[in-house]
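Dissemination and training. As part of the outreach component of the grant, students in the summer workshop were shown how a complex can be specified as a set of sequence lines and then modelled as a single object. The example used during the hands-on session is reproduced here so that future cohorts can follow it. Participants entered these lines:
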Amino acid sequence: MSNTIQHNTNKVITAEHLTKKFGHFTAVDDISFEVERGEIFGFLGANGAGKTTAMRMLCGLSIPTSGKGFVAGYDIGSQTELVKRNIGYMSQKFSLYDDLKVWENIELFGGIYGMNDAEIKVKTDELMKVLNFENERDKRVGSLPLGFKQKLAFSVSIFHSPQVVFLDEPTGGVDPITRRQFWELIYDATSKGITVFVTTHYMDEAEYCNRVSIMVDGKIEALDSPKNLKTQFNATSMEEVFQQLARKSTRKAD
Amino acid sequence: MKQLLSFVQKEFHHILRDKTTMMILLLMPIIQIILFGFAITTEVKNTQVAVLAPTNDEATQRITDKINASAYFDVVDRIHNTNEILPIFRDAKAKLVVVFEDHFAEKLRHTGTAHIQLIADATDPNAATSFSFYANNIIMDYQKELMAQKTNPYQIRPEIKMLYNPQMLGAFNFVPGVLGMIMILICAMMTSISIVREKEKGTMEILLVSPMKPIYIILSKITPYFVLSCVNFATIMLLSVYVLKVPIAGSFLSLVAVSLLYIFVSLSLGLLVSTLTDSQQAAMLISGMGLMIPVMLLSGMIFPIENMPVPLQWVSNIIPAKWYISAVKTIMIKGLGISAVLKEVSVLILMSLVLIGISLKKFKIRLE
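and obtained this result:
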């Protein structure tokens, strides 16, 4: 891997004029931003604003129409394989295998990311302790409550110690207490140096992020820390900031 | 390699834990063989016959006895009046009524001509044709007996020999047919459903973001169904040889080789279906309606292709099962070698190349 482009070691994600067009429709319109190592970066926007498309480009699932992007030091256009090795991903649809046991899911994804058996075993034991899941280890994932599943899905997505983890609306459908617990796991991950890139609908969650970007109609309209954004828009909460910006949207939600 | 192994293991877990589906997949060939072998049969056996002989004499008695003695017929009723014929059919007491004319033996002796009428229930035309043909033969037979007594110098005795299947057993036709259908069902339908299920549940996205190569995903999806198909192939072979007594006349190795090729074609078809659909239901409908029914109707499994209208005969050429069934018949029943089925084999190879080409390309485009 001597020929890899180390774009900037402190910047884990760099987007430079990223654009994605589907025919005449511009889903993502010339966005640029940077995410620092160990940061929690909130990626906000109404439905259809282009969040998911932007995230898919950064994960190497979709090729940008124009512009450049670097994730974990690799070019998302030409080094997708290396990008994929160094990221984790958790989708909005809960996505572990219901008919596999808890430990089998962990083992499967460990195996997919090329971890060896010994490493998988040690880390599984450790994870079961941290999550207080020792009794659930042999249960099938389908029998667990949603909050458990989400914590497990997140833990699986960072099991191979990626540099960045992308979370696509990870906490949909659970109560505030479970959401709070989930965020503790996120903080825990950043303390290990994992950068978190998260999209969300919940504005209370936006407050937990170090920095937040708000997308409207494919463009980034605001990007700063929650505190600075509230001052800038003269608002008391992120909810208000979001409402002011989202009102400008001309695009219909999908 | 570790990637692939973990993934194949996962696929086996999916199948082994879904006990209902697995039982269906393993029992289906057995049930179909038994159904086709013993219940759904086109052979005519023990057809019920009623006899109307206004004058009961030695000739009518002799013919009736001969009919009754034949394995094809059972004389269940004797009636005495033409008014009784229709009620017999209406109440389904008999499928065939043999009507002798008045003073049958007398007329035969004096004028040399006497009439018999065979009235058949033709609601099932194939069966009616078969059993009235058998009844006709029995009567001809009696006629020959009479002639033999009169020492007629000219006699033509046609002798018909049924090659490859001397007893005319239906099993010789449907064993290859069931093979062709089961493979399509398991390989194409189950493979497509299992790929589409990952799309539906959102796990496909996770796999695509992972460094897992798409070809690995495909390979590991295919492997368990390949194993299942081999198990089913063995089941059908054992049942056909030991229960239905259909021997494998040709080389077993050639048979296995052709079957592996067909399994490959079916798997590529399943892959293609999975790239075309986004829901398990759609995949099941396309496989069920689009593959199963054409296989049953157009492959020659049930209806002979030669009897179809020409356009349908053309359509039947794109059904892989048609070529497979024809190859299996040639090897298994006729006992010929692989050189006799070169045409079938080349068509199947061509089909698999085209199908796998299209589906791999489509599968990749989906990732973009």
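The longest strand of chain A covers residues 11-22. Students were then asked to discuss how this feature might be tested experimentally.
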